[in-house]
Automatic annotation (TrEMBL):
<dbReference type="InterPro" id="IPR021137">
    <property type="entry name" value="Ribosomal_bL35-like"/>
</dbReference>
<dbReference type="InterPro" id="IPR037229">
    <property type="entry name" value="Ribosomal_bL35_sf"/>
</dbReference>
<comment type="similarity">
    <text>Belongs to the bacterial ribosomal protein bL35 family.</text>
</comment>
<dbReference type="InterPro" id="IPR001706">
    <property type="entry name" value="Ribosomal_bL35"/>
</dbReference>
<dbReference type="GO" id="GO:0022625">
    <property type="term" value="C:cytosolic large ribosomal subunit"/>
</dbReference>
<dbReference type="InterPro" id="IPR018265">
    <property type="entry name" value="Ribosomal_bL35_CS"/>
</dbReference>
<feature type="compositionally biased region" description="Basic residues">
    <location>
        <begin position="1"/>
        <end position="15"/>
    </location>
</feature>
<keyword id="KW-0689">Ribosomal protein</keyword>
<dbReference type="Pfam" id="PF01632">
    <property type="entry name" value="Ribosomal_L35p"/>
</dbReference>
<keyword id="KW-0687">Ribonucleoprotein</keyword>
<dbReference type="GO" id="GO:0003735">
    <property type="term" value="F:structural constituent of ribosome"/>
</dbReference>
<feature type="compositionally biased region" description="Basic residues">
    <location>
        <begin position="28"/>
        <end position="44"/>
    </location>
</feature>
<dbReference type="GO" id="GO:0006412">
    <property type="term" value="P:translation"/>
</dbReference>
<feature type="region of interest" description="Disordered">
    <location>
        <begin position="1"/>
        <end position="47"/>
    </location>
</feature>
<protein>
    <recommendedName>
        <fullName>Large ribosomal subunit protein bL35</fullName>
    </recommendedName>
</protein>
Length: 66
């Protein structure tokens, strides 16, 4: 059987840290910024580390196919 391919969209959306945790862009900043609070906009800047179980799901299903 041939090797499975890594999900190309996931390669662009997620990064794996040196300790094996998964970093992703914060959600909720695509449109409708007028109704968001300043605190929400500030906290959604940059990247965030996903919860451990979400990281396991991303790695298992999308990034670690060999």
């Amino acid at each position: 059987m041939s090797k499975l391919k890594t999900h190309s969209g996931s390669k662009k959306r997620f990064k794996v840290t040196a300790s094996g945790r998964v970093k992703a862009q914060a959600a909720g900043k695509r449109h409708g910024m007028v109704k968001r609070t300043q605190k929400m906009k500030r906290n959604a800047r940059g990247t965030m580390v996903l919860a451990p179980q979400d990281g396991v799901t991303i790695l298992k299903n999308f990034l670690r196919n060999a």
